[in-house]
Structure formats: structure tokens, C-alpha cells
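Pipeline run #58 for the internal structure catalog. This entry was flagged by the ingest filter as a single-chain record with no existing model, so it goes straight to prediction. Upstream metadata was stripped on purpose; only the residue string is passed forward. Reviewer on rotation: M.T. Logging verbosity set to normal.
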Amino acid sequence: MKAKPAGRAVPAVRPVSAAQRPIPPVRPAKRLIPPALPPLLCLVALWQAVSVSGIVPGYMLPGPLSVLAALWKDRFLLAGHLGRTLSEAAAGLGLAVAVAFILAVIMDLSRRIKDALGPILLLTQTVPTVALAPLLILWMGYGSAPKIALVFLTCFFPLTLALLGAFSSAGEDELRLLKSMGATSPQLYRYIKVPSSAAAFFSGLRVSASYSIIGAVISEWLGGDAGLGVYMIRVRKSYSFDKMFAAILVVALLSLALMKLVELAEKAATPWRKGD
């Protein structure tokens, strides 16, 4: 019988010592504490110290603890006023988004219309909102209509400006390519101009979202039956400055929440920009 050929010898594997193993790259750990938190806590501590020390009378500068206590005490009343302010701000902001998009498209399509409406848009921003609010209340009454109109006038300019600038800076090569393929104007906006303007649009929307709350509160200061502005006027007349600061805190938190909501909407609407 023939002997079977021997197979290849398997080389011995030497064990790798711990010192010879490659060291994995060290990734920076995520920050558990936001960078803005320590300065904010120091500012709140300084505010409390000044209020307690008596340098400023307590009724003029209530401390953070007094403000939080007033906020908790009037939480249900503030929630009712907050609902009115938020509804007015949302209605005015939504109307501003729709009108800004339509107006930006029209001005982008026609140079003549752009030159005609550009100065008018700038003129709307030179008039102070405090001067416009009494006129709007005189023309529209004390309901929600003048508040929504003032929020609209406050918000639509930055949105129109952002969209118009983004439409004008769309890629010329891509536009010429689609035009050579017989694309229509709606297709140019759908595939090139609107996607490329997403970053500018959400940047303007972030600013307008904070403006909407401020515009609604200012209009409520000058006339109305409900809203955070009305609440602030009432507590100011009764010299309840702790409640005044509580309302200011609610307005600030609401503005931050709306800006964060716009940021989340931007991430959902532009998934291709997640790596930016």
C-alpha cells in the first residue's frame, strides 16, 4: 500500500503578550455637563447672593428661590395665559412661513418684482413694533387678530430674506443641467433650489421662532384680555415683581423650547446633513 502524503505542517501560533497588543484609539467621552451650565449656575448664585444681601431691595430684585416659588404658586394661571400666547405665536409664525416662501419664490422668478418689493420689505422693519401694536389693536380690536398680525410682521422678513438669499445662491451648474434636460421651473425648485435652501430656511426659522414669542407678548402688553403680556401688566401694577420675573422666565424657556423644536425639525427634514 502506498503511504498517504503528509499534509502541510501548520505553523505554531505564538501567543501575543499584553504589551504587544495594539492599543485601541481613545475616543473622547461625551460631555455629561453642558458647557453653559457652570456659568449659568454661577450667575444664579450671584443673583441669589445680591438679593439676600440687601444691596438691592428684595421687592425690586427677588431672588431665584422667590421667583420659583411664585412660578409654582401661579402655575395654573400662567399655564392658561401661556396657551393664549403660544397659539398667537404659532398662528403668526405659520402664516409668516407660508407668505415668506411664496414671496421669496415670486421675487426670485422676477427681478422687476424683487426690485419693487425689496424697499417695502425693508420699510416694514424700520417701523418699531411698539408703534405698530396700538394701530393694529385700533384697526382689528382686542382679540387675537392684532397679535397674530404683529407676530407675522415680526417674523416674515427674516424668513423671506433667508429664502431669497438661498434661492439666489443655488448651484448654477445644476440648474443649467436640469434646464438642458427640459426641466420646468417647479422642478428646478423641487430638486435644486428648495433642498439647497433648507439650511438657510431653518436658520431664519430659528430666529423667527424666538421673535414670535416676543412679538406676541409685546402686543399683549398694549391691549388684550389674556396672555403672558397681560399677566405681566397685571402683576406689575400690583408690584409683584417675583411673579413678573416668573413670567419672564416662562417666556425665556418657551423661546428656547421653540428653537430646540426647530432644530429637531431641521434634523428630521434634512437627513443628508446629519454628518455636518
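catalog note: The CA atoms of residues 178 and 191 lie 9 Å apart.
catalog note: Residues 63-268 form a domain with the MetI-like fold fold (CATH 1.10.3720.10).
status: ready for reviewer M.T.
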